[in-house]
Predict the structure.
Amino acid sequence: MATDLVEFVRMRAEEYGSRVLLSGEDTAISYQAFDEITDRLAYGLEKIGVSKGDHVAFIHPNSPQVLFGHCSTIKAGGVIDNGHDTSGEIYVS
């Protein structure tokens, strides 16, 4: 049984591979692709200085990209600060 989100994502990617995890009008993301995308984003977050315990907020309408960001932040060791904004504006500090 998975003990945390990162392990859960990795286990499901291994188990379900190319099966669709997320789908929209013009796209479909597999379990494996989700794991790979969030690994790359986590690496990018680490490169800009996000480390264990750092708080990261995504102020963006609900979307698959927010899910990628949340999982990537956790993979990088960060902590999610939940913010929800329907304006679509992105704030980076």
Summary: The domain at 5-82 is CATH 3.40.50.980 (Rossmann fold).
